[in-house]
Fold this protein.
Amino acid sequence: MRTPAVEDYLKTIYEIEHEQGKVATTALAERLRVTPASVTGMIKKLADMHLVAYEPYQGVVLTEAGRKIALEVIRHHRLIELYLAEALGVPWDRVHEEADKWEHVLSEDLEDRIDALLGYPTLDPHGAPIPTRGGEVAPSPRERLADLKPTQMALIAEVSDHDAVLLRELGACGIYPGTQVEVLACEGETMTLRLGEMVHAITLDMAGFVFVQDVRPVRR
């Protein structure tokens, strides 16, 4: 049966795959805030439904059917996030939690109305691509801010929305999609950045959830 729990698992598998590559059951348990035993049980159920493929120690992979459902739910989620942000002025660190509540019940009619009202957008408030009704999705940037070196600069393209605290901290530093950032230094677990006239230090763990594009050397 296609339940909200099934949809949550498929969506989360898709998101972790984008952020981390391999989708481990431990990562699923942490993201969904459930026990590893619960994850193992649900993964077996999803495999029986032919929505995922799983081998111990190899991670979880969505099948074509599982990916189709995941993208449908993600489309709902990201359209709702953008609607809440643009039409209602909800801060970017709060739209994810609210969208989680709506994504399972959004009708196709309301989905189309929101899409049209927003002008058929392609990106959500965090820079993530919004899948089309047909299940097509633009490729997301794969390079992380954490992988950049001093004397490199880039354009922030996307920020993971899985953690509201992370979004608030990054937002306080001005780290939003469309912002140009320059890496000044990397020392230990800290990365020092220049954004316009401001200089901020963030952890490498935080920078690992920020995706960038147009990476290039700094020219003085």
Observations:
- DSSP finds eight helices and eight strands in the chain.
- Helices lie at 4-20, 25-32, 36-48, 64-87, 95-102, 108-117, 164-172, 204-207.
- The first helix runs from residue 4 to 20.
